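Reviewers of the previous submission asked for a worked example of the structure-prediction workflow described in the proposal, so we include one complete record here. The input consisted solely of the amino acid sequence. No template or homolog information was supplied to the procedure at any stage.
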Amino acid sequence: MDRPLLSLRSTLVFLLAVLSGAVAGGLTALAGDGAPRSVLAGLAVAGVAVPFFDRLVDSGRAAEPLIPTGGSASEGEHRG
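From that input alone, the workflow returned the following structure tokens.
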């Protein structure tokens, strides 16, 4: 049991989906709809949020690093 049950990315995606569903269900309940509609709204939002947050977290992988980690531009520069 050295490895975790879920990866960090999966945990983050599911956590964000659950939080989104809870907020949607809570707001639906505060709007005056009944409990069944609030639960359905929360489940629907959570179901849609999983692929959304999965793509959102995955899109960050393809981005270039903000801080250059060495490169050809600074190789020729000498400060003396």
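The CA atoms of residues 67 and 74 lie 13 Å apart. We consider this example representative of the routine output the project will generate in years two and three.
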